[in-house]
Design goal:
The chain contains 10 helices and 14 strands. It is an alpha/beta fold. The chain has a 7-stranded mixed beta sheet, with helices on both faces. Strands 12-11-7-10-9-8-14 form a 7-stranded mixed beta sheet, covered by helices on one side. The longest helix is centred in the middle third of the chain and has 20 residues. The protein is globular, with a radius of gyration of 19 Å. The relative contact order is 0.16. The model has no long low-confidence stretch (mean pLDDT 95).
Length: 323
């Protein structure tokens, strides 16, 4: 088979990392088109890759005849139009979270994909490919630990830019733990409560940091999550699953990492390689558009709870992809 010809839209930190990954560490793929709203940046990256060019308009980049598949690392508000364009052209797409920034547009994307009768969208929740999370999932699914009862999660950053506000803690950080909970439990979140401890003195005025969330799962399990984005220590992402017949922890060495680029470097490589391989088979692996929609709905409920401190139910539409 010939290499999968990929367009990467958005070449900021995440997108540029994907370009480098596809160009040097992934087999069976090559980057042929890059796009960014900063045209000079896209042109600079394209110039460093044989056979690659910059295309100014992202929708034109998706439509290019020599593009087989697309990686979306653009800002969330642009995702709806870009995802619908990928669906219109029948091109597989790896979309960094969020699927879209609101419930209505996320559901519209899910429904449009369902109408086509073929899965084309994978959402970039890379922890599903981390070896420790994958092992924990296999143990839970294999029944070795018995039924999972409680999941304790922590998500700590040493520091973030001052523009990172309370809502972004939910949308950009907590959302990863939401997907981990759904992935490990294999069921939906039905209720979320976000609590506000006394804020750290390192947080900007008015920013609720840390935040502690409690997710109630459909089967009765509970997930506690601490998100602390100005912890002043290393990048620390971990969890402990407590089940009927034992407990298992993930990420106990995570504090040794400066940020996500090292903590989950291997997970990103495995995720993108799996996506490239799945494109060749006409399949989707990893998180689906439905998973992206569900995460958006839970995040919206979490934001409502953040404002009141009270439990908020999570109401999902029926999955249009269910038989």
């Amino acid at each position: 088979m010939s290499d999968l010809r990929v367009a990467v839209l958005g070449v900021g930190v995440m997108g540029a990392d994907h370009v480098a990954r596809l160009s040097s560490r992934i087999s069976g793929a090559r980057v042929v088109v890059v796009n960014d709203y900063v045209t000079e940046k896209a042109e600079q990256i394209a110039a460093g890759i044989d056979g690659c060019r910059a295309v100014v308009d992202p929708l034109d980049a998706i439509a290019e005849p020599d593009v087989d598949a697309v990686v979306l690392a653009t800002p969330g508000p642009t995702h709806e139009k870009q995802l619908l364009a990928c669906l219109e052209h029948g091109k597989p797409v790896l979309c960094e979270k969020p699927l879209t920034t609101d419930i209505e547009t996320s559901l519209a994307v899910v429904k449009r994909e369902a109408e086509l009768g073929k899965r084309l969208i994978q959402v970039g929740f890379m922890r599903r490919f981390d070896h420790e999370y994958a092992r924990l999932k296999a143990l839970i699914d294999g029944g070795e630990l018995g039924r999972p009862l409680v999941l304790h999660c922590a998500h700590r950053n040493p520091a973030v830019p001052p523009s990172f506000d309370s809502a972004m803690i939910v949308r950009d950080s907590l959302v990863h733990e939401v997907d981990v909970a759904r992935f490990l439990f294999g069921e939906e979140v039905v209720e979320v409560t976000v609590l506000s401890p006394a804020p750290t003195r390192h947080a900007p005025p008015g920013v609720v940091d840390p935040q502690v969330s409690v997710l109630r799962m459909a089967g009765g399990g509970l997930v506690t999550t601490e998100v602390f984005i100005n912890s002043q220590v290393g990048y620390d992402v971990r969890c402990e699953a407590v089940a009927e017949q034992g407990a298992l922890s993930v990420g106990l060495d995570a504090g040794a990492h400066a940020d996500w680029t090292t903590r989950f470097a291997r997970a990103y490589d495995l995720e993108v390689q799996a996506w490239v391989d799945a494109c060749g088979r006409g399949e989707v692996v990893g998180a689906t558009s439905w998973d992206g929609y569900a995460a958006t709905v839970v995040a919206a409920a979490a934001l409502a709870s953040l404002a009141t401190g009270r439990p908020v139910p999570v109401d999902l539409d029926p999955d249009p992809t269910d038989p």
